[in-house]
Amino acid sequence: MQKLVIEGGKRLRGEVVLQGSKNSSLPIMAGAILTGGECVLENCPILTDIYSASRILNNLGCRCSFSGNTAVIDSSGANCCEIPEKLMREMRSSIMFMGAMLGRMGECTVSIPGGCELGSRPIDMHLSAMKKMGADIREENGRIICKMTSGKPRGAKISLPFPSVGATENIILCAVLAEGETVINNSAREPEIEDLCRFLQKCGAEIKGAGESRIVIRGREKLHGCEYRIMPDRIACATYLSMAVSAGGEIILKNCCIPETEPFLSVLEQTGCSLYAKNDNIYLRSSLRPKAVRDRIRTMPHPGFPTDAQAVLMAVLACADGTSVFEENIFDCRYRHADELVKMGADIQVMGKIAVVKGVERLHGANVEATDLRGGASLVCGALSAEGTTVIEGLNHIDRGYEKIERAVGLLGGNIKRV
Ligand code: EPU
Question: Does the beta carbon of 114 sit less than 6 angstroms from any atom of ligand 1?
């Protein structure tokens, strides 16, 4: 089992080019199935989740290969519409292949997806939307067997009870080749959804309202392959900025998506760091101990404060001057990193969806374990500011979302090694 060993207490200084977005790449890779042609995806991060997606594509009869950060997907040979349970369990985004397979083949067999354990993560909204679009769905021995009764999806009016990112993406994927018009009300507005829509539009899809809470899709007969550049990863951006505020220092992040990261940046600035953005670069300087954030930090669907950045900001505020309060509104169990930060000397009380973080003067090194992706990143963040050595286990979680994290942190001046 690999571990990260981090010597903390060193100010960061350096620059790094941000990776492409994981949460955009995954649905876009699923979308490549719909084209029946060749898609070239640039700026695709090299991550275990991306390899899981490529294994699913290969299993379905597509050809997926990588050259550096460019993925080439040829879906002309797609001939299978069943994803084995083992592949489904590797990540949450495996469910995104459901919409794409129903769009292309009119049928699919999947199972409950895996992914980070952040509480119950049902797929009821995905299933009821697919039913509205004409799918007959039954469960047999844990397998979910879906078949479009008329052979292909048909457009529908779907109102989501909550703006679910995954359900919105699945509906879009299913709708672009459907018969007629699909309207999604209360759709999620995350930037990764806009990225998916931009990709599909480049493949010939007709989509209006991406990034808004009402998306209208007019189904097309056929799509075609394209070349597309994946957007930068706004959560990796939040993570590396948090590290620099936590440890103190001066860093430059290149290739950021600044407007999309704004809901996080506006809160981070309240810790007293100075942020300057020019072109696609963010310059951050943080010299003092961070200040606590006065207003409650409520995680909300975009453009609210992102749940994916809650853990890394918590590591920053664990040694801030004063008390900060988080309210996690998206997932019902997304504070598992708090116990590990406490092992490093943090003072954090969790009560249901609330976490009260009383800033301590300094964290100290400890042996800790990542239990989910963003929680793992928060431990790296805490370790960089801590006095002494921290050993982090559970790297399989971190490697799902951060491309060569030890290299990026090393370029920023952190003392980190993978052993
Ligand atoms: N939900 C349901 N039923 C559904 C779907 C969702 O009850 O059918 C609930 C979930 O249980 C959760 C809430 O709705 O409580 C929000 O879930 P959503 O569907 O929006 O999230 P997701 O699609 O499963 C994506 C990201 C997550 C990110 C969330 C919220 C990907 C691959 N995952 O998950 O990213 O936290 O949106 O922004 O895009 C991560 O990158 O670490 C990560 C967990």
Answer: no
Sheet with 227-229: strands ordered across: 63-67, 70-74, 38-42, 227-229
Q: Whose CA is nearest to atom 19 of ligand 1?
A: 164
- The number of distinct structural domains making up the chain is 2
Same domain? For 122 and 264 the reply is no
Strand partners, 63: 74
pTM across the whole model: 0.97
pLDDT in tens, 122-146: 899 999 999 999 999 999 988 999 9
Cβ-based neighbour number of residue 136 at 10 Å: 12
Pocket test for ligand 1, best of 91, 96, 164, 403 (most atoms within 8 A of CB): 164
**Index of the ligand 1 atom closest to the CA of residue 374:** 42
Told to judge if 257 belongs to the known catalytic residues of this protein, a careful annotator would answer no
Closest of 84, 90, 82, 102 to residue 51, by C-alpha: 90
pLDDT digits (tens, 9 = 90+) for 375-407: 999 999 999 999 999 999 999 999 999 999 999
Q: Which helix (H) or strand (E) holds 355?
A: strand 354-358
Claim to verify: residue 211 and residue 78 sit in the same structural domain: yes
- The answer to whether 111 touches 144, Cβ cutoff 8 Å, is yes
Catalytic residue (one of 44, 62, 108, 116): 116
Residue 254 phi, psi (nearest 5): -105, 155
Residue that wins the pLDDT comparison between 332 and 377: 377
* 137/302 Cα distance (integer angstroms): 31
Nearest to 15 by CA among 289, 410, 416, 385: 410
The residue whose CB lies within 8 Å of the most ligand 1 atoms, and thus the one to mutate among 47, 52, 121, is: 121
List the 367-369 sheet strands across, edge first.
Answer: 367-369, 389-393, 4-7, 415-418
Give residues with Cβ within 8 angstroms of 325, minimum separation 6: 296, 297, 354, 355, 356, 357
CATH of residue 163: 3.65.10.10
Structural domain range at position 37 = 22-229
Ligand 1: distance of its center to the CA of 98 in Å?
Answer: 16
For 151, other C-beta atoms within 10 Å of its C-beta total: 12
Report the atom number in ligand 1 closest to the C-alpha of 301. 38
CB 80 within 8 A of CB 59: yes
Domain co-membership, 205 together with 63 = yes
